[in-house]
Amino acid sequence: MILVVGHKNPDSDSICSAIVATELLTARGVEAMPIRQGEINRETQHILDVAGAVSPELRTSVAGEQIWLVDYSDLAQAPDDVADAEILGIVDHHRLGDVMTVNPMEAWIWPVGCTNTVLFNMFKIEGHEIKPQIAKLMMSAILSDTVGFASPTCTQKDKDAVAELAQIADVQDVDTFIKELLIAKTDIDGLSAAELVEKDLKGYPFNGRDVVVGQVELATLEQVDGMIEALEADLERRCTEESLAFAAVMLTDITTAQTRLLYKGEWAEKLVKHEVDGMLMMENTLSRKKQGWPWLQNELV
User: Fold this and answer.
1) SS3 assignment, position 106
2) For site-directed labelling of 116, which of 43, 141, 243, 297 has its Cα 20 to 30 A away?
């Protein structure tokens, strides 16, 4: 049995990729099961409901297991006991992380907008049928990760995949499908500051220290009015309790591509020079992967 596991604080691509990669392995005649490392967010639950799919089992220990990693290759985002598991495969669309294996493994890492775009092409290359339910999961994940094709991470391969998957899934009105998905993506009503930071938080090893960068996608920055102090306090707490050199969260207005960066930690002083009126605003910034994190790496060196 191979366990297919997405990253910590799973987003929609991570959850859908675990389910879809399991389907691919099953089509190969391999016994596999999707698992998740955290709670399902509102957008992902919307996707699962629309597709009629079941959430993967919550499981954070993989010691002694054979596993596939989907949507990441950084050990900081893997289960804590991943060193005691055997990694057989990786499917991802991010930079190559610090995963190392004893034996050769299968790895598919493409510079596209979503891991499910890679998986879609793997299905096509291998000639496996894509069922309507799986197609709906895949197109939903691609539209989520590319913010309805608006993200700079979006490629023609992503658009081509959605066009074909929409036909398989019998989605007649893709624009309405995207609108309903983005409404679910930006629903933060009732969430605490800690829950918002944790919503899509990723850890990165950098210059010998640990760093975390989260992102909250919003319909408008006004949604977090009155929460800024609480969000900053939560970032400060994480730095203290987890010995982080830097913790940040990107508050991103997906309609204007404007991001406000909140940040704390020992390295925070390196960014103060970019503040205007006490705020660090990042214009034309939708993507953590392609814009936010690369910029931060240059500044934190």
Assistant:
1) strand
2) 297
Type of residue numbered 101 = T
Contact 100, 123 (CB under 8 A): no
Reported as a single tens digit per residue, the pLDDT across 141-174 is: 999 999 999 999 999 999 999 999 999 999 999 9
- All domains of the chain in start order, with CATH: 2-186 (3.90.1640.10), 193-300 (3.10.310.20)
Pull the structure tokens for residue 5.
Answer: 């596991």
Strands 209-218 and 280-282: unpaired
Residues in the chain: 301
Distances (CA, A) of 282 to 14, 59, 188, 295: 26, 36, 21, 10
Tokens matching residue 237:
């707490």
As a whole number of angstroms, the distance between CA 179 and CA 201 comes to 24
With beta carbons less than 8 A apart as the criterion, state whether 144 and 12 touch: yes
